[in-house]
Amino acid sequence: MTTLSSGFARARRWLRGHPLAFDAALAFGTLAAMICGSFTAPGDGHGPPAFGARTPELFSVLLMTLSAAALVLRRRRPRQVLAVTGALSVVEYVLMEPPAPVVMGTVIALYTVASRTDRPTTWRVGLLTTVAVTAAAMVFGSTPWYSQENFGVFAWTGLAGAAGDAVRSRRAFIDAIRERAERAERTREEEARRRVAEERLRIARDLHDVVAHHIALVNVQAGVAAHVMDKRPDQAKEALAHVRDASRSALNELRVTVGLLRQQGDPEAPTEPAPGLAVLGELVDTFRNAGLPVEVACADRDRLPAAVDLAAYRVIQEALTNVRKHAGAAVRAEVSVVRVGATVEVTVLDNGRGSAWRRPGAGPVGGDGTGGTAPRARTAPGGDAHAGAGADGEEPESGGHGLVGMRERVTALGGALTAGPRYGGGFRVHAILPVEARTGEPERPGTAGGTGIRR
Q: I want to staple 420 with a disulfide (CB 3.0 to 4.6 A). Which of 196, 307, 326, 452 is the partner?
């Protein structure tokens, strides 16, 4: 049984792949059925039809052959084939007595038209064909118009149109299901790619926030140590201690981030809390130790949602890092966090004047947005000059992702961020964050306005 069913399945697949061969076989089978039917004479009303009671005329055989041959092209020219087979059936009813079953070709052609066209066309063509063939049988046939043979012609042609329309509807339904499945699959793939891109962006932003801050402080303190190594060894040791602390903090945060990325399945919740405004004092102290005076005014730091708290912390961290790297010598910074209604406003100001990009008419902005000018040496508390960078006095290029990362964080929560030079000198970063953060929305970077991009 299994072998037989597999053989039928292979034959069906082969016939579907060779439609012309299938139509030729169908035409041959239809011709054989019409010829066999032409040897059958209808009963007298009390008995079954008698086979062999008559012999078909040569003209009838010719009409049956032409009707069957036309069915070979039923897929390519369905309407033309229906017109030819219908005309041959009408001719058979008009000229031959008794008529041969040429109408079988018309029934198959009408089914083909109904299965390959729309419903209105099926109704029009089917009604015309049924009326024409049935009228010819009733008017020109040898039997009374109300005989069962004439009503059989009407029934078979109507059934062919209905069956073809049902097959067309089923095919359309299956095609619609397949299309929806394919579209859903494409949507899932696009959603997966979008989520991967968003996750890569988030990881890159987090790594930048971790690395840029600590490496900037390490760079500054290393420059200080190199500058005062010969004259003030005690201050050099203090600067190297700050380098050790900053590098240890960077390694710890990188270890936590990389550990989360290496976990299989859903990552476990981190054992350490995410940084926020509660540890803002520690963050500010690292900049003060690096020679940047910072004044802080912060309220309601413990009553913000976790996502908003982290975003505010990262904005302050990145803004102060930019001040330390790009604002020049003898600069001061101010940080304020104020709750205004349903939002919290974070502002970071500085009075830096040293970089070339701050002056009107300055040259083109460099790769890090600083105009290509390295900050001058600055004086640390106690009278010692702090080199603005490493031993050679130059800052590494930032790659231009700092302010972009701040915008992405703020806009992901439904807030807005502006950044640009202050009137009279300095720089201002201002972020407005909603207290009820929309953390489930996709990030749309670049929607917040801003001028004077620093990084």
A: 452
Q: Which helix (H) or strand (E) holds 433?
A: strand 427-434
Six-digit token pair at 274?
């995410």
C-alpha of 52 from chain center: 69
CA distance 215 to 317: 13
Nearest of 201, 200, 189, 212 to residue 445 by alpha carbon: 201
Indicate the pLDDT class of residue 356, thresholds 50, 70 and 90: very low
The answer to whether residues 357 and 365 touch, using CB atoms and an 8 Å cutoff, is yes
**Strand 343-350 and strand 427-434: pairing?**
antiparallel
Global confidence as pTM: 0.47
pLDDT digits (tens, 9 = 90+) for 144-163: 777 777 888 888 888 998 99
Rounded CA separation 108/18 (Å): 19
Q: Give φ, ψ of 2 to 5 degrees.
A: -65, -40
Tell me how far apart the alpha carbons of residues 42 and 6 are, in angstroms, rounded to a whole number: 41
Query: Can you tell me the mean pLDDT for 183-204?
Result: 82
What type of residue sits at position 196?
Answer: V
- Which tens digits make up the pLDDT trace of 231-243? 777 777 777 777 7
